[in-house]
Structures are given as structure tokens and as C-alpha cells.
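In the previous chapter we treated chains in isolation. Here, by contrast, the input contains two separate entities that must be folded as one system, with a combined length of 510 residues.
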Amino acid sequence: MARKEYAFYPGCSSQKGASASNYLVSVESMCKTLDIRMTEIPDWNCCGASISYAEAGELPRHVMNARNFALAETNLPGQDIVATCAACWLGARESKERLEHSDRLMADTQTALKEAGLAIKVIPEVRHMVEVLIEDLGYDELKKPVKKPLQGMKFAGYVGCQTNRPFGIAGESFENPMYLDKLIETVGGEAVKYDQKVTCCGGALAFSEPDKAQGQIKDIIEAAYDGGAEMIVTPCPLCQANVEVYQGQINKRYGTKFDIPVLYYSQLMTLAYGGSAKEAGLNGNVVQARKLEEFAGK
Amino acid sequence: MSDLNQEMAERYKNNFLKEIEEQAEMGEWVKMCMQCGLCSGSCPTNFHSGWDHPPQEIFMLIRAGKREEVLNSEGMYMCTSCYNCYVRCPRKVPVTHVMHGIAEYAYRIGRAPKAQPTLHLSKTFWSNATKYGRVNEVQLTQSLYFKDGLGAGIKKGLEMKDVALGLVKAGRLNPMEALGMGHKCKDIKGIHAMLAKAEELEARNKAAKGKE
């Protein structure tokens, strides 16, 4: 039996062939080393994300999350739900709080769930992968399996928004959370100081209003370079994609020469635990992390 | 004026604050605003062009009964859901959610600004996500590019070509999803039945308000 077991909610972006598929690969490798068993919630559905606000309305949004709660509770009793995506975590956790605080919402939700043959008894805890690492294992346990510290490498820990606000990681401040820097240091890297750690990447506006979002992304990358970072690290799939994939367009628009890899914390951990480039999902990075590829090959 | 808009305007007469409190999700928080402006100062998009009214202005306009100005505002759709305003508000107003709630209400009664790109994304995202239960990222992107017609879509597609190719190469974009081959839930029928019921209940609850 594994040391810890959770009901895994990967979310739409962390599926095979989807935009954060390399996040999924590295989380699987990391969890294997840490002896964490993540069992996918059978037939889970989309959380609705924040952006669906105008069309979805209140009850339909909560009902979507409630279906996942019911599926987790029925199929994986007693296990906390763990999301790797910031938006999935926020959406599901918000629905949990709202349903638990309103008898009317809960009653309506049960009525709707019945249409899909489901019901909720007790909503499981909804947690982010990072919470599991920090709270259930702790930095010392995370450090034990480190075989190859990422010595001499400088990272800008980019926390962004939705793993930080409105819920955040317990004990951290909204304005300057330290957990990501600590994770970087736990695997032997250097976390640089820079001033855009919790700035928004533009979120969904990267699609709908690219001018605005790319302006924000430019500020984040510039600050990371100014802080002396060689790479950016993040816990959020949308932060990762937005900060990575538009660098070419930003370069054209602003005359910059950005070429900075954007990694997930789970990729760093996999590599420090002795994993291969493939196990860390480095082949899934659009801006190649050459230094890490060399490091993995050594 | 759409029928629903007219009905609401008549039901609440000149009390727009009450209308928002009862009809918009989290609208009951509007009166808690003390006009300090921390929300607007914390907003990442407030420093770009296009903002007609940042949150604290929206709140004051509601209290001043400026119904059309609020419902037609682009302000709510500037929200990136970053939650800066939400965590900083000294009165604990969940500003992010209030803005979403007002946006949803304006759209529901047919008064939201036309051709608002983020509103369009919101609609597209939800219909995409609920069609198969999971988001089809390729179809989502396609429907955004082609929202202004075929020519504009092709132009946009070419602009974004390098971004897309980079993702395909990295195994993070599956072109087969364009044909509906992507990820799906098994119980799509159950999801649709569940959502239909939720929409029915929500409409009934909202219709009942303000009539007692």
C-alpha cells in the first residue's frame, strides 16, 4: 500500500495530448518516487473554470463540481480530492464552501445530481497537489529522495494567482508567498528575488484580449530576467502556458529577446529525484530547457 | 429592450441596487463598498486601455441607480479572475465574484455589450466544456478565432501558427481534437440531464425573487 492515497482530479488541461500533458507526466513521476498513489476520479468532468462565469450561472457551475464530489465519494471513499490545476482546485473548493454554507444550494444540487443518478453525503476535502506535498509530507520528506540537487541553477518561482488567491496555501501571505521558493531550495536550486511573483498572467484574457495579457506576461518575464533567473517555475497550468507559449509573439510586438523556459515544480522535483528528461516531461516544453536536459542526461 | 430586461426594470422600478442584490450572484455585497478604490488599484487590467468603470465605480453607479451605464459597461469583462481585489478589500467584499455576478446578470437580460471578446470566450468555454463534459481545447481555440468570420479566422490562425506548431511538437495540442476526437466523459447524457435540471431550478429561483 502506498504511503498516501488521494482521489486525483487532473482536469481538462492535464490529459494526454492536452496543453498541460507534461505537468501530468511529471506529477506521475514525482508521486511514484514519493510513494503517493493518485487514483483518477472515474469519469470526472470540467470544473467550469473561472471564465465560464457569464454563461454558466450559479447552480450549473456548482453542480458540475458536485458531480465530481459525488463520484469521488462513491468510488474512492475517505480520500481527499487532489487537483494539480489551480483553476480546478479553486473552482471545486469554492463550490464545496458554497454548498456547505447554503442549504438551498445543496438541496437544489442534490435534485440536479439525481438526474445523473448521483448524490452527495459528505463533500470530500478539496486540495491542491502543493498542499499535499507541504502539509502531508513536508519539506524534509520531500528532500529525502533528492539524488541530484539542482545546484547552481537560478529559478524565478512564479506563484501567480489562483494557487495563491483567494484560498492560498495555509500560513502563506497573499503578497509574498514563500512555498514555491522553498520547494525550489528543497531540490537544491536557487530561488531568485524578483517583483512579479504573484502578478496575474492575464488568465483567460490571453485568448480574448491578447494585447492586455501579453503586456502583463512581458512584465513578469522581464522581472524574472532582472532577478537573474535562468528559468521560471510555476504550480499553475495556465500560468505555465501563458508565460511560455507567447514569448515569440511578445518578442515580435515589443522587440524583446525572451527565450526563458517555464517549468512546473513537479518537473524540477522529478529531475532532482534522478528522473530522466522524459519522466520529467521536458519534451513537453515549447521553450526548451536545455540546461535541464543536459543535467538529466548526466 | 429585451423582454426579460423590461420585466426586471418594471419589477424593481427605480431600485437598481435592490435589483442587483436579488438578481446578481453576490450582489448583496454591493452596499458594503466604502469607495476606497483598493480593488481598482489592485486590478491588473486597470492599467490598460478599455476600462470604462473599475469595480468601485461600478458599485457606486449601482447605488446611484445608473442602470443602463452599469449593464452596458465593459468593466466586468476586464476581470482576469486573479482575486487581487478579493483578498485586499478591507470590507471583505468578494469583488471578483460580484463582478462575475453582475456580468452574468447583464448578459442574462440581454443588456451586455455586444461583441465583447471576453464575454464571447465565457459563452464559448461553457458550451464547449459542457458539450462533452471536458474541454476540447482545439475546438475552443477554433471557435474563438473564427468568431468574426472565415477570413478573420484564417488570418488569426496564421498569426498564431507558430504558437500552435510549438504546442503540437511538444505533444500538447492534438490536431485530431478538431474533429471531435478529444477527451470526453462517458456519461454525457447524465451530465446534460443534470445541467438541464440545474438551469431549470436556477431560473425558477431567480424568477421568484422580488415578487413577494
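The beta strands of chain A are 4-9, 36-40, 81-83, 126-128, 154-157, 190-191, 231-234, 262-264. Residues 39 and 86 of chain A are 19 Å apart (CA to CA). Compare these points with the single-chain example from earlier in the chapter.
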